Amino acid sequence: MEDECVESFVETKKNKNSLTIRNTSDIDLPVISTVAQMSREMGVIADLQVAEAVLQADGVTLSFDATTIKGNHINEIHFNTKEQSLTASVLMLPGGRAEDYVQHIMDTLEDLSITYSAFHKCEIQEVRNKMRGKILSTLTDRAAVNSATVNKLNDLLERQLLQLNCHLHPLDGIANETRKVLLESNSIIPSAVHGTDCRIANLLYAISKLR
User: Fold this and answer.
1) Where residue 157 sits, what CATH number does that domain have?
2) 128 C-beta neighbours (distance < 10 Å), count
3) In this structure, are 80 and 178 located in the same domain?
4) Number of domains in the chain
5) Is 10 helix (H, G, I), strand (E, B) or coil?
6) 150 with 197, same domain?
7) Could you give the angle at the alpha carbon of 97 between the alpha carbons of 125 and 75, nearest 5°?
8) Are 161 and 137 in contact (CB under 8 A)?
9) Spatial CB neighbours of 195, under 8 Å, sequence gap ≥ 6
């Protein structure tokens, strides 16, 4: 009897990727509020999964990317650990300014903190601080607005994040940050090696040519 009911509801057309729905008048479909509540519950579970992954990781990379679809500016936020990459939020923003991206990122961190603290019954301030402390680097397209966003995040998170750019090899971003540090040591490292980079980089390049 149950199989007959299912067959009367959904008829699968063989050799075609389509379904024909019939006799829907006999089925009690959920009301809009029920569907909305179910979607909300799925969102809470997803937030909890992301929050737990971030807090359990030694450190995470925050990546964000925006695109315009039919006039709507949509931004997505991801957290990347050594083991996995998780989508934290996809949201339509009022604009594409650094302030808009920063607000979206901070709101997402706040939502994750609230969800985790409510589920595990712990202090939200402690969760908030710990989660912010897990962010060690960012990964974005090389664009002025993204750089401005990261600079604002540095101020809010009170730390200097390693800024990586995804359209280049990540090692390029690491190399740029390394050069900045090595450049500060120019005054204390004597070297007669010629080159246009900092002294240590010139020395390493000269050594590499000896192979």
Assistant:
1) 3.30.420
2) 17
3) no
4) 2
5) strand
6) no
7) 70
8) yes
9) 201, 202, 205, 206
Please report, in tens digits, the pLDDT of each residue of the chain (211 residues total): 444 444 443 444 444 444 444 555 556 777 778 777 777 788 889 899 999 999 999 999 999 999 887 788 999 999 999 989 999 999 999 999 999 999 999 999 999 999 999 999 999 999 999 999 999 999 998 889 999 999 999 999 999 999 988 765 566 667 777 877 877 777 677 777 777 777 777 777 777 666 5
Q: Which two tokens stand for residue 157?
A: 């998170």
How far separated are the first and last CA of the chain, in Å rounded?
Answer: 79
CB 103 within 8 A of CB 92: no
Q: Can you tell me the distance from the alpha carbon of 111 to that of 120, in angstroms, rounded to the nearest whole number?
A: 14
Residues 54 and 134 in one domain: yes
Q: Where are the alpha helices (DSSP H) in the chain?
A: 2-9, 32-56, 98-120, 124-134, 144-157, 170-183, 199-208
In a domain, 7, yes or no: no
What is the rounded CA–CA span in Å between residue 42 and residue 130? 24
